[in-house]
Amino acid sequence: MKDEQDPINELYRKILQGAAGTGDKEMLARWMARLDVGGEEVSDEELAIEQQASQQALHARFFPPKKHVRFKYVWLAAASIAMVIFSAIFFYNKHSKAPGVQDIVYAENSTASGERKIITLEDGSRISMNSASHIRYTASFTGKSREVYLEGQAYFEVSHDKDHPFIVHAGKLAVEVLGTAFDVRNYQDDADAAVTVTTGKIAVKAGASSDHYVLTRGQQLTYDRQTGSVSHETVGPAEYVAWQQGAFVFREKELREVCRQLERIYGVTIHIKTPALEKKTLNFRIKGENISHVMEMLAASGGFQYSIKERVITLWK
């Protein structure tokens, strides 16, 4: 290490003496580029800003108020070193990528409350997005796998490609398929997340476990966010994907869960003033009804009162 350091010390000495040439600075930059300076690329504009900030900071350090001017040359030398270091960082970020390696470009799509959307990916796969959802995916599927990141709820119809698995990352869930159709619900304010298969077969990894759960048509996996527990059962998948046609089915759902979903569907805010109502379970189905009609049905079956003021709904016993 000492043998390697001596030439570097000589380069620093030249810089301090103002005798460093372009080749010397480039050599120091190349040496600095070998250090781990991070993987984020620095633009020319950002580099200039950082250099200016460093000069100002060094000036404040070496020229405190009422200090003797003999520090002038020390500051100039330190500023010169700082500029070389930043040049090294810039050099490293510009030239450290392997030949042929390109930055990954992501595309994103979102839906607002009450909005649904269908998008088609480059490989022909279709994604139906439920309201208040967001997805991110590589704009071009050129890697070994096709990967999508989901917050909210979406129904996936995946084009078959045995050489490029399709992977959906949904919070603590990772769903891997070759070609099939399934629904993923991953709203961060829900108590759980779920995957429901309508056709084909998928493998699901849940939480920190390395285990994979294999699901086939009509099977559903549910992940509890609080406990990290996983359960799976056989269901009628049609009611879990009915939202694509504007229908929503609630079976033994607590009122607070129902209200959260109604907020997404109708773009309203719902307050439950009586805490005892939050865990009251309900069973009902809606399709196309306006929010006033929905609240009328809920109040009748749940035994509570409500008021609607603009887009704010309040419930109480």
From TrEMBL:
In what residue span(s) does the FecR protein domain sit? 110-202
Protein's UniProt name: DUF4974 domain-containing protein
Which GO-annotated molecular functions does the record name? sigma factor antagonist activity
What species does this protein belong to? Chitinophaga agrisoli
The transmembrane segments are 73-92
- Stored InterPro entries: FecR, FecR_C, Ferrdict_sens_TM
Task: Tell me which UniProt keywords the record has, alphabetically.
Answer: Membrane, Transmembrane, Transmembrane helix
Residues forming the Protein FecR C-terminal domain are 248-314
